[in-house]
Every structure is written in structure tokens, then in C-alpha cells.
Amino acid sequence: MALLFLMPSRTLQVELSWWSEFWGPFQVTPKELNDFLKKNAGYTERGWLKWDSVAKVSEGKVVLGYIGNPSFQRIDAALKDNQPVIAKVFIERTVPHWVLIVGKEKTEYLIRDPLGDGKSLRQLSFYGSDIHAIRILKAAR
Fold first, then answer.
1. Cα separation, 78 vs 76, whole angstroms
2. What is the pLDDT of residue 16?
3. pTM (2 decimals)?
4. In whole angstroms, how large is the CA radius of gyration of the chain?
């Protein structure tokens, strides 16, 4: 059961690290991010990421933004503004999993997936899941 609670935070660590590597104004590895979050109360007691911790680890350079309930229009708008989208899907309709939507090809969203090799793009439809929650990563202004 603990895996279900820890997986969202672990996958979010990887997405945040990917974002910083490709779009962000700071660099952080998944290990560095995890160490920072553990030392600075970045997780809840259940092991879930505290969303405002992103601004702390980036020293205010990057923020996670809530843009409302998931919709194709919101995701498309964020991608157009060069803001990757963290999306919550379910593996086999049971296990919550977070992926980073980094682009779109025709009608298919392209993701970086921490369960993949970390380099390749995968189609979001791979999971056969609706998108249950979204957040955007953006540089602080």
C-alpha cells in the first residue's frame, strides 16, 4: 500500500527534474530534489509532494500553477506558452501516476514518463486513462 502513496511524489520529482533540464532557469537532479524535499518538509506525512515546495527548491525561480480541472484547451494553451503540464493518470485504473506532457502531435499528447527510459517520448494514450489532474510548471515572474 505504501507504494501507492509514494509513487506520485517520486514521479513528480522526475518530472520537475526533467522540466528544469529542458525549460527551467535552474538545474536539479531527482536525487538533489528528493534530498531537498526531505530536509525541508516538502512531503506530507503520506509521502505526497507539497505543491508549494517547488518554489522553495528553485529559490523562487519556478512555480507550480493550478489552472483548473483538466481540459484539452487548458493543456494546449499551456503547451503553446511553453509551460509543460504535469498530468495525473491511473495505471490499470488503480495506481496514480504523474507524467509530464511536453508536446502534442496531431491529437496525441507526448509525455516524458518516469516509468520509461527517461529520454524517449511516449504517447499519453499508452495508459488508456483519462487525465485526472493537471498542474503547470512555469518560470516565476
1. 5
2. 57
3. 0.73
4. 14
Domain count within the chain: 1
Q: How far is CA 113 from the centre of its chain?
A: 9
For residue 64, list its beta bridge partners: 137
Distance CA 27, CA 102 (A): 18
**CA separation for the pair 113, 120 (Å, rounded):** 8
Question: Please, are residues 35 and 56 in contact by the beta-carbon 8 Å criterion?
Answer: no
In the block, residue with C-alpha cell 488503480:
94
* CA-to-CA dists, residue 71 to 7, 113, 131, angstroms: 24, 20, 8
**Residue tagged 499528447 (cell numbers):** 109
Give the range of the structural domain holding residue 70, as residue numbers without chain letter.
Answer: 2-139
CATH of the domain at 78: 3.90.70.10
Element holding 74 (H helix, E strand): helix 72-80
Q: What is the pLDDT of residues 59-112, one digit of tens each?
A: 777 788 888 899 999 999 999 988 888 899 999 888 888 888 888 999 999 988
Pairing of strands 95-105, 108-112: antiparallel
The whole-number pLDDT of residue 109 equals 94
d(CA 113, CA 91): 12
